[in-house]
Structure formats: structure tokens, C-alpha cells
Amino acid sequence: MIAPDNQQERLGDYLAGYVDGEGSFHVAVQRNPSTRYGWQLVPEFHVSQNPERATVLRLLQAHLQCGRIQANARSGGRDRSLVYVVRGRADLLRNVIPFFERHPILSEKRREFETFAEIVRAMERGEHLQREGFERLLALALRMNGGGRYRRADWSSRILRGHTPDMRSDPCA
Question: How far is 59 from 24, CA to CA, in rounded Å?
């Protein structure tokens, strides 16, 4: 018989392996006129799965004690998959990041996780609220996930060149 502690370790390792194949650590760059630079960084952990295999999403949610499970596509789309999503910074810091530090991902996706954790922790320290910190975190975010196939290649230069109201008048620009 497997001891309870060992069962939890094995489950954690299983979930980390599952995330390695089906999950993503992502930092979205979204336009938001109410923020200092007109853009915001939105860290997000998510795992997708078909509805008939949603048990693993519920296991992740129960194990990490945060996040939500929702339809992956907008209504009316052909994508029927579900996605487990964690966006709250406190949940990422308290639950998600420590979990993957205890149960490391073994593939190259580990670098994505490490960059993700660095960005989330820097945001918790408020580094994204200063221009230099925002620029550094933006550069890290834009390099994640192979540069992001859906991201525009010129985002970084557009954002940093002053395409936002607060930055146009910045004397440091």
C-alpha cells in the first residue's frame, strides 16, 4: 500500500506532467487606457481539455484550491473544450507557483514557468508600475511561448515608443 504522503506526491507529479503537455504559463499584453502606460500585463495559467476528460481539470482545481473551469471558446464556436484558468495574482503566488516549484516540469516548458514566476513576483513587488520595470517585464512576456504566434512582432516597439497617452508626454521617452 502507498503511504498517503507518497500518494499526494505522485498525484502532484502526475498533474505537473499533465500540465507539461496540455497547459500554458502565459502573460497577456492588453491595451488598458486606465493604466499608467495604457497597457497591462495579465499573467495567466491555463490547461485545456475536452469535456469528456474534464476530470483532470477538476483534480487540478481541487489540488491547487483556486481558479475556475470554463468553456474555452466563445459561445457559438466549434471548439467544445474546457479550460482551467488561474489569473488572480494571489492565487498564482500562493498556490500555482509553489506547486510547480515542488513538482517541476521536466521539458523546455520549465523555462516558460520560470519566466512566468519571475514576472508574477516582480509584479507583486510593483516593478511593473515604473517604466523601467514595465519595459523589462514586457520584454520577458513577449519572449515567452516562442514569441507567441498570435502576438504582433511590433508590439514592444509600439508600446515603448509612446503609443499611449501617458508615455507620449514622458520626458524620458
Answer: 17
pTM of the model: 0.81
- Measured distance CA(34)–CA(39) in Å, rounded: 8
Do the beta carbons of residue 119 and residue 137 sit within 8 Å? yes
Q: Measured between alpha carbons, how far is 11 from 103 in angstroms, rounded to an integer?
A: 10
Q: Work out the number of other CB atoms within 10 angstroms of the CB of residue 114.
A: 16
Q: Distance between CA 16 and CA 124 in Å, rounded?
A: 24
46 and 23 in contact (C-beta within 8 Å)?
Answer: yes
> What's the pLDDT tens digit per position in 47-102?
999 999 999 999 999 999 999 999 987 656 677 899 999 999 999 999 999 999 99
Distance CA(103)–CA(168), nearest Å, equals: 44
Per-residue cell: 139: 520584454
Dist CA 8 CA 4 (whole Å): 6
